[in-house]
Each structure stands twice: as C-alpha cells, then as structure tokens.
Design a protein that fits this description.
This protein is of the alpha+beta class. About 45% of the residues lie in helices and about 15% in strands.
C-alpha cells in the first residue's frame, strides 16, 4: 500500500471539498426515520447525483463517475468532514448496487442502478424474519413459481428503511422441500405490489426506522429474481460481505466522530475523570487504525484480491468502536447528555441519539456473536460450534 496520494487524487479531493462546501445543507436534516426527513434526505441524494457524487465508484453508465476505491475513500473523508447528511439509500447504493453489478443481468443493471443512483427508487432490506434473524438460513417466506411470476407469502421484520422505501430486496425459499441455506432465491419486490403490506415499527423515540413487511399472494415477475433460482444464499452472502466489510461503514464516518469526541474533551475535559482522556485517545487511534486497514484492503482489491471472512473482523471492530466512542462522550457530558438545549455546541449535540443508534451496530449486519463464530471457523480453522 502506497500512502502517498497522487496529484490526480489530491485534485479530486480539492474538487470534492469545494463542491461539498457549496452544497451541504447549512443545518442538519431531520431524521430520515420520519416522513419529512426521508423526503429531504431523498432530495439530498438527488443533489449528490446532479453533482456527480451519488456513488463515485460506480461506472459512469449507471450514474457514477468511475472512481477506484482509493478515490472513494478520499470522497468519504471529505463527505464526513463536511458534515454532510447520512445516506438514506444506503441499502441500495452500498449493498444491492454492488450485488447487482456482480450477479445481475445487463438488463437488471440497466433497469435498477441508474434509478438507484438518482434516488428515484430507495431500497429496503428484507432478510430478517420473526424466527430467522441471526439464523438467516431459517427463512420461511416462500416464493412459488406460477408461469412467469413468483407468488410470495410470509413475513419479513426489522426491514431497514421499509416504512418509506419504494422497493425491498428479499431472500425467500423457492424450494419448499429444502432446508437451511439450500433452496433460497434473491427476489426484488416493489413495495406497492398488491398483496404487500408494510407496517412501521415505532422505535423507543417513536420514529420508524424499521418496518414489518407481509406478503399475501404477492406476485412479482420472474425477471425480478437476482441470480439463479435456489442460489440466493451465495448472493446474500456476497451482499453481507459488502455490509460487513468495506462500503456500508466507511472509516471516515468514525474519524469524524473521533474528531468530535476530541473537541468535546477539549471543551469538557477539564472537569472530567482523567481516565476518560485515555478513552478519547483510544477512540482516535482506533479510528485511524480502521482507516489504514481499509486503505490496505482497498489497495488489495484494486490489485485483484478479494475480501472474505475478514469482513467479519471489520464488522466487529467498527461496531464495538462506535459504541465505545459514544459511551465516552456520554460520560463526558454526564447528565447534560439528555438535557442539552435545542441549539447546543456542535461538539456536544447529538451524542445521545448517536449512542442509541450505535447499540444496534453489534446486532445488525449479522450479530457480533455470529461473526465471532465465522472468524473461529473460517479464519482460525477451529471446529464448528
């Protein structure tokens, strides 16, 4: 890995920084888990697309600008440093998009990717079920083939973004005699399909970041299947690799959090427990270490390598780092964390909401317990649990 940026990469960074400075909203957008916040975040995605920054690493033909992974990391650093909004279509652009490029037909890529980049279609994720959360191979939602259509029956739960999204990508059982990870297929479903019912799940704060999705004889064209029939597990594992590995949680996001934490220490540390200083330093070092590790992975991928079970290592590291950073911030804020005025200093605002969200990190994208099993079996070669 060469840590020296080229003149072209420096120029790209300067261009992105200038564009973001001119276009990032002056005030934070409302939560994307509300109808108004979702609408405003979708509008922000369109601004990004019009500026050529919707998904910089995608091919130009699909709405990207053909950047390599190093340039994507540079853009992410500038994006989070500018305080830009979170990405409402992250399920689409970071998870399904790369999966379509690897497993989709040319027709599917042309149909879905440009609309995804323009945020005309925002995607939800439909994997978990009431009895198949971490044990995704226990999926029961069925899809039987009837002519040129699949007929779906069953229920998905904890579907991120489904309360307001347009489409959902699902893993369903297409072979009723199959068990575990066999006989599954990867199906793309419009959420306005007759027979599909979406029921939002209010969170502790009353907002609806998740929803249940029910399928009752819902029909979708066979052309909505991604990859071969009954081969959905292989495709879902590739999607999970994107989720746990490189794209969904870029290191720049955590570096920005570490910088805010340092500023919070500078503002509040004089009266705080000195032991918290070590935690602030650790947060900074962890974020930098994760960044360097991601640059190394990106360099290897550009050279033709692949990312495998090490994605589980990434997932455990960034999710636990995120919780630690927010716990440290709450310790610095003390009781103020829950009673800050509406217009709080930037270094102090938002930590409680961030902490609540960080608690989900060790659970989604495959629980950390499952990831530790993956590491034990596939990286260390230990016997199966």
């Amino acid at each position: 890995m060469d840590l020296t940026f080229t003149p072209e990469q420096d120029a790209f960074r300067a261009e992105a920084r200038a564009w973001l400075a001119a276009h990032v909203p002056e005030r934070p957008l409302p939560s994307m888990d509300t109808a108004e916040g979702f609408r405003l975040h979708r509008e922000w995605e369109r601004v990004l697309h019009d500026g050529g920054y919707a998904m910089v690493s995608w091919p130009v033909a699909y709405g990207g600008r053909g950047c390599n992974l190093i340039e994507w990391l540079i853009f992410e650093e500038e994006y989070w440093s500018a305080g830009a909004p979170g990405r409402v279509n992250q399920n689409g652009i970071f998870l399904l998009g790369p999966t379509l490029m690897e497993f989709g037909t040319p027709e599917q890529r042309a149909r879905y990717l440009p609309k995804m980049a323009r945020s005309e279609e925002v995607w939800a994720q439909g994997w978990s079920e009431p009895n198949a959360g971490s044990d995704m191979a226990a999926i029961r939602t069925s899809a039987r083939l009837d002519g040129d259509q699949y007929v779906l029956n069953g229920q998905k739960t904890w579907c991120s973004r489904a309360a307001f999204a347009d489409w959902i990508f699902c893993l369903v059982r297409t072979d009723p005699k199959s068990e575990r990870h066999r006989g599954l297929s990867f199906i793309l479903v419009p959420l306005d399909t007759p027979g599909v019912r979406v029921r939002p799940i209010p969170q502790l704060d009353g907002e609806t970041g998740f929803a249940e999705v029910f399928f009752d004889e819902a029909r979708v064209p066979r052309a909505n299947r991604l990859g071969e029939e009954h081969q959905g597990w292989k495709i879902a594992m590739a999607t999970a690799g994107f989720e746990r590995g490189l794209m969904l949680r870029s290191p720049a996001r955590f570096q920005a959090t570490a910088r805010r934490l340092r500023r919070l220490w500078e503002a509040r540390g004089a009266d705080a427990d000195p032991a918290l200083r070590d935690l602030v330093v650790r947060a900074w070092m962890d974020a930098e270490a994760y960044s360097l590790s991601t640059y190394a992975t990106a360099s290897r991928l550009i050279a033709g390598g692949s990312i495998g079970a090490e994605a589980s290592l990434n997932k455990i590291f960034w999710s636990e780092m995120d919780v630690r950073m927010h716990e440290t911030a709450l310790a610095l804020l003390g009781a103020d964390a829950g009673f800050l005025p509406p217009v709080a200093p930037p270094e102090a605002a938002g930590w409680l909401d961030g902490f609540l969200f960080s608690l989900a990190g060790p659970i989604y994208a495959g629980t950390n317990e499952i990831q530790r099993n993956v590491i034990a079996e596939r990286v260390l070669g230990l016997p199966r649990d």
